[in-house]
TrEMBL record:
Residues 247-339 form the Cytochrome c domain. This is cytochrome-c oxidase. It is an enzyme of class 7 (translocase). The lineage of its organism: Bacteria, Pseudomonadati, Pseudomonadota, Gammaproteobacteria, Acidiferrobacterales. Its EC number is 7.1.1.9.
Length: 339
């Protein structure tokens, strides 16, 4: 079973603690510009063009701000001069009309140029992946192959991927900052985005549109890997699940059926039909659980099965605390066997 990253714990300030100073606040804000999910750390051509746009806008804004501050300081501290002055009308027309028109026109033309780079060469022959947003997880379908997974998208390095995104409930937004920009996911409508990874790696994504109580815990991973590794993974995903090979896992499969799990979850080859929750056919091969917020290991899986609402209040999956520990353990063993 693959193991995900360690779960992150956010420490809140204790009650009565002193308020953070300006330096601490500035440090916290700047920390959000880096890390595992940063639009300024592009790993593909689409993200690179967007990052370049950001830096150009930042540099232009810095220049304009510097000019405004310099003019303000000049106006405040210059010596009085009652001789000839520039007429106010000239300043208004030059600074309030001509300058904005020139700057905005240049930005518009540059924007048209950047929009053309968001469709990489070879997009017509791209690998097509359908992504369906749910509260609060991602359904991943590889077009025409029957391969279905959840919360983790595997793609080959150097190959353009066409993401066809939609929503099954409310408005979501698909965003993998290191590979592409944001795109809305609308119920009843399909939007298209292209992305490509230039190197192998695991890139974190996030729903970028508030979609309910667990919006912050609706993440995903994009795993970019060499073509050969991707093809092996894809071939395995097409296969049906293997029947339980041990007594404990057989008992777990019986518990899976008795507790009504197939009403929501599909295990192809064993318990097909459920579409409310994630496809579990090869869940043991995933790095994460619960919308890419928990590592996929035995203790975490056992805790999630026992009481999912404790991790994600509002989730549709019920608590199974009322089920005896032995039955839950066999159910976990069954899920661990779904490789």
């Amino acid at each position: 079973m693959p193991h995900g990253a360690n779960d992150q714990v956010t420490l809140l300030p204790r009650r009565g603690a002193p308020a953070p100073g300006p330096l601490a606040l500035a440090t916290a804000l700047l920390a959000g510009c880096g890390g595992a999910q940063s639009a300024l750390n592009p790993q593909g051509p689409v993200a690179a063009s967007l990052a370049q746009t950001w830096w150009i806008l930042f540099a232009g804004s810095a220049v304009i701000l510097s000019l405004v501050v310099a003019l303000a300081l000049y106006a405040v501290f210059r010596a009085p001069d009652r001789r000839g002055h520039v007429r106010p009308g000239t300043l208004i027309v030059g600074g309030g009309v001509v300058f904005p028109v020139v700057v905005l026109s240049a930005l518009l033309l540059y924007g048209f140029h950047v929009s053309g780079t968001t469709r990489p060469p070879g997009a017509e022959a791209a690998l097509r992946v359908e992504v369906v947003g749910h509260q609060w997880w991602w359904e991943i379908r590889y077009e025409g192959e029957g391969a279905v997974t959840a919360n983790e998208i595997h793609i080959p390095v150097g190959r353009t991927v066409e993401m066809r995104v939609t929503s099954a409930d409310v408005i979501h937004s698909f965003w993998v900052p290191s590979l592409a920009g944001k795109i809305d996911m609308m119920p009843g409508s399909t939007n298209v985005q292209w992305l490509r990874a230039d190197r192998p790696g695991v890139f974190r994504g996030q729903c970028a549109e508030f979609c309910g109580a667990q919006h912050a815990r609706m993440a995903l991973l994009v795993i970019a890997e060499p073509e050969a590794d991707f093809e092996r993974w894809r071939a395995h995903q097409r296969r049906d699940a293997v029947a339980p090979a041990t007594a404990e896992r057989t008992q777990g499969f019986a518990a899976f059926a008795k507790l009504g799990c197939p009403e929501c979850h599909t295990v192809r080859g064993l318990a097909p039909g459920g579409r409310v929750g994630p496809d579990l056919t090869h869940v043991a091969r995933r790095y994460t659980l619960a919308g890419a917020t928990l590592g996929n290991n035995r203790p975490t899986l056992a805790a999630w099965v026992a009481d999912a609402p404790a991790f994600k209040p509002g989730t549709r999956m019920p608590s199974f605390r009322h089920v005896d520990a032995k039955t839950r353990a066999s159910l976990v063993a069954f899920l661990e066997g779904l490789e």
